[in-house]
Write a structure and sequence with these properties.
106 residues, six-stranded antiparallel beta sheet, two-stranded antiparallel sheet, 0% helix, 37% strand, protein folding chaperone, Chaperonin_GroES_sf, Chaperonin_GroES
Length: 106
Amino acid sequence: MSDVKLEIQMLHDRVMVRISPEDGERRSSGGIVIPATAQVAKRLAWGDVLGVGTNVRHVKVGDRVLFNPDDQFEVEVQGHAYLVMRERDVHATATERTDHGTGLYL
């Protein structure tokens, strides 16, 4: 069998995201280390958008998005894990393009 490479194209309103690596241990504003396993409340995660479907309207490739990682589907491609979700499951985007943001920056 030949080694033909097939390009992945997202369909409809689907978004492919790679979880940001800094979502592990974090520090509070007082300097206390909070381990990644600590659960105070349901924690949302930031990820980088790698692909979008043809019906996605508000998310672009290269954006960072905020979402709940527990409710998504995971797929492995060439040894790397990615998440696939619907655009409606994205809670916020962080992008250089600003139309009407919150005034908060990453």
